[in-house]
Design brief:
Length: about 200
């Protein structure tokens, strides 16, 4: 396993996870606007997905010995499939919810859960798996302790978050159509997750 390659892939996932938040708000804007309420629900949805994904990833990390490839394969399918659905049917889902849920807040919550929860949860589940794998690598190569490994993982991932927010807000969204961004996010996440599968198995 190439440790530096894993960190590079984690940086990319950090970029995608937070950049996706900004892309997602652009998808919601024609239906719900971009008010404080919209941002509050979007941020809460992402934080909830980060929390659930991290817990699930921690639970799954205990089974790496017997099914690492299977576990990562399931995450790859969930991540790629959910982003494909968001890119392909996101506007349909928003229109469907809008036509059936009159109250704005419940409709907004349902829309965000349907569009964002599964892909972000899947990305978040990869972090504990990487920490577990790096910790086991540290047992074989002294110098990479569990504390150091987890600190580097979260530090690199957070740097990716920052770059994802800044580049998405100031360059990608002004320059590219929303449909291109959604399909680009799907392809990039699929490639990054596949790269992690190759490195961690």
């Amino acid at each position: 396993m190439g440790v530096f390659a894993v960190f590079g892939l984690l940086f990319g996932l950090g970029f995608l996870s937070m950049g996706f938040q900004l892309v997602g708000t652009r998808l919601l804007a024609p239906y719900y606007g971009s008010s404080l309420m919209v941002w509050a629900v979007v941020i809460s949805t992402f934080l909830g997905a980060f929390s659930v994904g991290s817990i699930l990833g921690g639970v799954l990390a205990r089974g790496l010995e017997w099914g690492r490839g299977k576990i990562l394969g399931v995450i790859w399918v969930l991540l790629t499939g959910s982003l494909l659905l968001t890119a392909w049917a996101g506007r349909w889902w928003l229109g469907w919810v809008e036509s059936r849920v009159e109250a704005i807040l419940p409709g907004l919550i349902l829309s965000c859960l349907g569009l964002f929860f599964v892909p972000v949860c899947s990305m978040a589940a990869l972090t504990p798996l990487c920490i577990e794998s790096l910790g086991r690598a540290g047992e074989k190569k002294p110098g990479l302790s569990p504390g150091l490994g987890s600190g580097l993982v979260y530090g690199v991932n957070t740097l990716g978050n920052i770059c994802g927010v800044m580049l998405t807000a100031f360059w990608l969204i002004p320059q590219l159509p929303l449909s291109w961004l959604l399909w680009g996010w799907c392809l990039s996440a699929a490639l990054l997750c596949f790269g992690l599968m190759r490195r961690l198995t």
